[in-house]
Amino acid sequence: MTTLVDLFRASARRVPDGVALRGGGEEVTYAELDARSDRVARVLAGSGVGPGELVGAVVGRCVESVVTVLGILKSGAAYMPLDPAYPAERLRYVVADAGVRVSVGPRAREVPGVVLSVDGPGEGRPSAPSAGDPAYVIYTSGSTGRPKGCVVTHANVVALLEAALPLFGFGPRERWTLFHSLSFDFSVWEMWGAFVTGGRFVELLVEEGVTVLNQVPSVFRYTATAYREAGCPGLAVRWLVFGGEEVDLPVVREFLGEVGGVRPSVVNMYGITETTVHVTYKELDDAALADRAGVASSVGAVAGRGSPARGGGFRRRDVGRRGRGVVRVSGAGGVDPGAVRRAGLRRALPDRGSGA
Asked: Where does the AMP-dependent synthetase/ligase domain start and stop, copy by copy (predicted)?
């Protein structure tokens, strides 16, 4: 079965001279990114890192961070993003809770634990991951108790990409921005949506012509305000993809009214970390955008993955009503294996009404 490493290498073979990343005054092609992340994988393998290992990735949103994540995956290990901006107590907790032995990355010395330098040429022989191996672990916020690490496999992410990417038709001409922290799983969609389709990452929305813009609706309010304050310059955005929350329609309508040229398609998606980023998809056409309710839900399934939210007892839940809900996921491909080092902790149950 296919892994994320397989998908990246396929793009590197298909568009080796295509630009994969541009940032911090640096431009990196797919072939160069492939070679640089191979070196990181060799260094990790030479230090005994391999399949089944969880490596702390102390990263931001820069070229070297992407190199680090790819290198960890190529070593056969999984990455666990560690944000130096988080409180030291939380970082100490998640490192210990997940059993992280080493951390790497451009800011690794800012977090507790053993730091491994990946600056050398590397002499190890990496072991390729399998589809069922973990790709990453992302810790929850801990708002309902102690943070828990959600384990997501290569197969989980590949299932997302195979189901969702055909809905958009992204290609090598797309320019993406890694807007979200790697500690937030929206970044998984951004990173692999770009790499699987041969797109490129850039930093600047207007100046570098971003064509795929992913946003959490509450954050988009600030993006829209900044755009307005900049004088509403021309945009190249073709897809405006929301995730994680209901969309505030008045904000979107005002933004679209200020955008010159071809109006972008607007999509709202939803999912949780345990179901691998997105399980629902709803394109907001003119009728949906004109809805006077003021918000747009994400009801509408990504093929073979999701369904409308349901309330307690798996009853269909009215959109907009508050309460405890259940996201139904069709098939096993999107549901993660569980929480790191908590084999018995799971909240995925069969839907007796559908057989899912």
From this structure: 8-297
Ranges in the chain annotated CATH 3.40.50.980: 4-159
- Place 193 in a pLDDT band, splitting at 50, 70 and 90: very high
CB neighbour list of residue 129: distance below 8 Å, 6 or more residues apart: 3, 5, 51, 73, 76, 77, 135, 154
Instruction: Calculate ∠ Cα 124-84-137, nearest 5°.
Output: 60
pLDDT score of 124: 85
Q: Which amino acid is at 276?
A: T
Q: Which amino acid is at 354?
A: S
Handedness of CA 257, 260, 261, 263 (dihedral sign): negative
Among 140, 108, 97, 139, CA closest to 44: 108
Residue 143 in tokens: 């708002």
pLDDT of 300: 58
Cβ atoms of 348 and 274 within 8 Å: the answer is yes
Which residues make beta-bridge pairs with 68? none
Asked if 78 contacts 133 with a C-beta cutoff of 8 angstroms, the reply is yes
Is domain 204-328 given the CATH code 3.40.50 in the classification?
yes
Mapped onto helix, strand or coil, the DSSP state of residue 295 is strand
pLDDT tens-digit map of 40-59:
999 999 989 999 899 999 87
The 10s digit of each residue's pLDDT in 118-149 is 777 778 899 999 999 999 999 987 666 678 89
Say what the pTM is. Answer: 0.85
Assigned CATH topology for domain 4-159: Rossmann fold (3.40.50)
- Contact in structure between 72 and 57 (CB atoms under 8 Å): yes
What are the C-alpha distances in Å from 336 to residues 59, 145, 182, 317, 328? 23, 20, 18, 24, 14
State whether residue 321 is helix, strand or coil.
Answer: coil
Q: What does 246-279 look like in DSSP terms, one character per residue?
A: -EEHHHHHHHHHH--SSPPEEEEEE--GGG-S--
CB 301 within 8 A of CB 330: yes
CB 132 within 8 A of CB 333: no
**pLDDT for the residue numbered 121:** 75
